[in-house]
């Protein structure tokens, strides 16, 4: 599944608003691993918000930075739980790097469920149109095959809260024997 000798991180992929950051943070705590949100690292590097960068430089420039940051994070020598931006799977190089250096969980949700969650969100540049539901449907039509092609595990995240999804991932990871040396979910008592 992975290149030999590669450090195996745990990555979360999925549409914006599917819960990647919240769930990633919970898993990292349970597994005693560092949590990294790639969007956060990108914003630190840019010195501005992703929304501002999109507005000034456009999406293609953002995707270049995203690719660079993801490659660096996935090459890191200490394992971590990584939450990625919803569009990270658009580039083949990112899909390849995610698969080769991490165990990838796709948080599969529905546009309806996500539109409900994001109804008050003003931070996501791709969600700021008049019809966020339609936008999410369009994004999913393009991305669903890419999420499925990149993921090692598909997790049903629709109509469930973050703790329920984290528990499911924890069980899957344990069943698959992915947690050797990582501690086991709940080992910290949380
Ligand atoms: C994007 C999703 C965002 C962020 C950027 C682009 C996308 O991350 O990377 O705004 O293309 O779907 P989240 O998935 O965390 O919202």
From TrEMBL:
Gene: aroK
Catalytic activity: shikimate + ATP = 3-phosphoshikimate + ADP + H(+)
Binding site for ATP: 17-22, 124, 160
Organism of this sequence: Comamonas aquatica
Keywords assigned: Amino-acid biosynthesis, Aromatic amino acid biosynthesis, ATP-binding, Cytoplasm, Kinase, Magnesium, Metal-binding, Nucleotide-binding, Transferase
Location of this chain's protein in the cell: Cytoplasm
Name this protein carries in UniProt: Shikimate kinase
Cofactor: Mg(2+)
Binding-site residues, Mg(2+): 21
Cofactor binding: number and manner: Binds 1 Mg(2+) ion per subunit.
